[in-house]
Protein 1
Amino acid sequence: MRAVGEFRREILLVSHEAIIVVAASNKPMEWFNDLYDDFRMTTGFGHVSDEQTKREVDFICDVLELPEEARVLDLFCGAGRHSLELMRRGYAATGIEFNPDYLKLAKELSEGAGSTPHFIQGDVRHVDFGEGYDAAIIMFNSFGYFSDEEDQAVLARTYHALKKGGRFLIEVLNRDWILKHFKESEVSEINGVRVVEQREFDALTSRNNFIIERYEEDRVVRKEGSWRLYSAHELKNILEGIGFRFIAGYSNLEKESLTKDTRLMRMVFEK
């Protein structure tokens, strides 16, 4: 498997026709900036129902014990579905997202509302979060993009952005579950598009190195990445080392306890 960032244009013969493999750039770039294109937006959180978002925000409000008019920091907010629902419930949400197209959609979705979340376009490693938040969230497995040091720096910045007693919810895939069900190759069809994913797990770095090829009507779109996976105990130790106090871990929105068989971990901490 090629190293992440080795993007180039290639010609493949598919059904005796020349197909161009498209990458977002001919020069190295950070993989996560390339991964989140329009296709991933519409087939990812673009397919999450309003009812599911409301259930998730019910859970957020419950486990974070949000006071009235609480200020909530929504990191890696995507198209802002959690920020928008929090706003509808009277909370003051600040969403930070790197992808300008996602924030454009978020602002379109907020049109006509009485108030709008404060959206910031930028890299969470460098953007000023502000301070004095009652709570912070990272949802939809939006973590593990960076180096270990950078991941931990983002968590430390989150800690410093919270009030004393402020709570933090992080929702990420469970490394232990991933390894138990790990597939080196997987083929699927999404919205009529054939998608092939090849994966390699690096046991020394706990990273899932992957190549995704999307066979669209007139081209093949290739994406490469290296996602850092975290186990519950590792994430707990990191956050406690920063200064957080662990509150609880959940397997689902019904608040069943986190176990080794939990796929999507929801972990709550307090400053």
Note: The longest helix spans residues 50-63.
Protein 2
Amino acid sequence: MKSARTVLSLAAGLSAMPAIGHALDLPGVQHATGLLRVDYASSDPRSAACFLYSNQRTAVTCLHAVANAAHVTVTFDSGVTNATVKTILKRYDLALLELAAPISATPLDPAASIPDSHAHLEAVGFPANLVNATSQRASLRAIGPNTVEGFVTSPEMRQQLENQGYPALDADVLDLESHVEPGMSGGPLVDKNGMVVGICDGGLENGTTELTWAIGANRISDLLASHENLRTAGGGDAPPVLFSSKLTAQAAGEAVVVGKHTFVKIRTLALEDLINSSHEPLGLSRLATDFAVTHPETFQFDLYRDESSGATFVVPSGARPQVEGNTITLHGANGLVGIRITLTDYNSYSEAIQQGTQFLYNDLPMAPYERWFPNNRWSYLQPVNYRSGLTIQREAFYRLRSGYGRPVQTALSFLTFAGYNHLLLSAAAIRVGLTADFATGTPVDISWGKAVFAIEMLTFAEQGEVTQAPPQEPDSGF
């Protein structure tokens, strides 16, 4: 068997990271799931997952993770071995691997049938390139897209998948209610008995509202019978909608600890990706238009998540969150723009929101004759509720200084509140004075525009379908 030096060098840089996902309580699945390292001749290596199937020298994974590979290494609990692609099923983005040496683990078996919606499932893999397999709780949505095309949210995404050639847009898939992470492609989706229900494949990983799919386990028999090979695969570098993970794409794993919660940096996103997969793509597009944002394609954001609660926030890429007491803070270089984020328990959502706005009066210095006023254009009349129990409320305020002559605006604040399971995740963007430009700022600085977009992305990963549309507000301007 091959030396573990290559894989252990990766583990050395990641072993101190806080865990992403939770430890897998199914030893048989743990032992049968392997970490793929895929090297290419002309691009960055990728990581993905696979699992033993049929015998100890055969594993199933996703085609997009191994297509065009120059070399594939697989690490299981019992050792490391090389792998080659034996056959593929292009339509369903599946590949069958032949291992150079047998693995001392029992291959997994398929479930007898697809479970009912909301039955407890586990998506298993290696999120953020961790060396130990972890799992994410998952279930099947009762109502949702049942083909890959149902997940396509933009012409660009459609073009990416069509150029790739797999999976087919009309391929039937399992719609997952789970925040499956990059690096989990090819991992097994199992039921409580460790039986394979599906193979994790892709989703809208670009954004904070996770919509993911798996290929049904019934397609593995088609893969075993297939005569397709890699020469027929075609395609290029896997698009971000598919869930293999570039090992050198960004420095994931940076952590911010606040009380009992640990927020781990998961990935870096473009503003366009955030808008396309947010709760309110139209509202965010309007925000960009009304504030005359120039070159929004240059805006990049880092996504942080607390795995224990699913609480998720984003910050301008390169900004370094600081912890001050129970609050996460970020400050622009000019001192005029800032972001503050808190995660607290609550009994009454409405009372928690009222308390969440008090920092405007208690923590921000105010001159005589200054007062905060609500801005209805960017505020909800009432919270927006999702079927999963997630509640989102947005509010905006401006501060005026009265006295002699015309009142002068001295500060602005946008706030977002996400409530889930009696936890309130709050974020505020604050601008003091009138000299902070909305659209400019150095790549690692916090401009007003980046701050506002960042706090609008607040969410919990376990979000669901909206039950009440965001209310339309009358125009009032600033």
Note: The two ends are 67 Å apart (CA to CA).
Protein 3
Amino acid sequence: MLDKEREIYTSQAAESGKPADIVEKMVEGRVRKYLAEVSLLDQPFVKDQNVKVGKLLEEAGCECRGFVRFEVGEGIEVEQADFAAEVAAQVKGSNWSDAVGDRALGPVRRVLLKLSGEALAGQAGFGVDPAVVARLCADIAAARNAGAEIALVLGGGNLFRGAALQAAGLGRVTGDQMGMLATVMNGLAFRDLLRQAGVPAALYSAIELPGVAERFHRDNAMAALGRGEVVVLVAGTGNPFFTTDTAACLRGIEIDADVVLKATKVDGVYTADPHKDPGARRFDELSYDEVLARELAVMDLTAICLCRDHGMPLVVFDMQAEGALIRLVNGEKVGTRVGAGLERKERPT
């Protein structure tokens, strides 16, 4: 059965026209997702959705040698309905049923959320506002409780920006290193407040910080996500000259996220700054190539190219909007979607 599914996925991925190595990664990602959906050991325990059956058996010192599958509602007579009409209604109301990038998204299983440092500062515009971070933690907790695995990349612009420090006279490498440390401080605050909210969280750094944060390793981060922990990723890529937007896309690809979510101060991508231009129009959808050609302020070009080359869908949305994150996790259309083959759709403000 697995060979048949792999054959189907390979055929579908080959139609994208991408290089063989990218096709192979796409197939492996889809196979892993398929196994997570059909494998008993990867299913959530019915009495605790945060614990998988395999983990429960391991902790109990047991092993599974066979099982019987029951369909939910089996044996209950249901009213006959017009199936075609029901499907049509679901498709009409569905928000992620169409393809975004190279992945067809329904309710998402794993997301990479990018938060700017400014989002943590609140009205003060500098530092960390615990009340703001606590509210963001509550939104993340709700999305996690809905079944999503969440990794978080934080910026550091509320404390230091490498480019600004360079303009002030510091060397660019030094400025970027200070910016990396700023993201670490933000990550420490975020992890602590997540834990206070009852959400297990792990902090991983792209640079060595013994006694402060564990060094990022993909396998460890993936294991933490599998345990239901929110993974907080700091210090960017660990290298100067790369933004935290690029780090977010890179980590999203590494951990096989279904989508990268970029939280901003506005509800998507606009033709101009909507705070300065009342005639600015919001895009519902954009292709990667159009973002690059128009140089739209979505993410830096390196980040967009990473997403494009690896078929990683991207959503730009307003994290301050009530319930925005949980709606995205549940598969609703929120903000502006960026992916391969999407036609430009503008909406008047």
Note: Residues 172-196 form the longest helix (25 residues).
